[in-house]
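Backbone Fold Data
Goal — fold tokens
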Amino acid sequence: MDFVSGIMFQDITTLLLDPKAFQDTIDLFVERYKNKDITVVAGTEARGFIFGPPIALAIGAKFVPLRKPKKLPGEVISEEYTLEYGTDKLEMHVGAVQAGERALIVDDLIATRGTLCAGIRLLERVGAEVVECACLIELPELKGRDRLGNKPLFILVSAV
């Protein structure tokens, strides 16, 4: 755990430096989603980009990046969300996801749920069904899970 300007965050670097542990992590996600007819894996910037593409490739789904403002070329739709320390937005390319597609949203961790909720709203606005959200780490004391409503959430590690 690291601290920057009063913000506490979990660091996944040690996992990424261990190829076996990283592969095992991806394999756990793939095992869960390989038979759920997921057509879209949406990864939130930035660490959702680490886990999302290998999961998408392994299950035969496309990967759609959910990015911070003004990072995607072309036409986008956006959703604002609240962070522990302010507000931000996520954007997605118009046309990247079609109505009726089954989506998985991937991020490295869930804290207050803002990023995941913005991703859910983006995907649902275009008519996709968000099947589940998947995160490597949960910070349960921040109660982000409680704020997802009825959306299922899969977590590999709970940081207590």
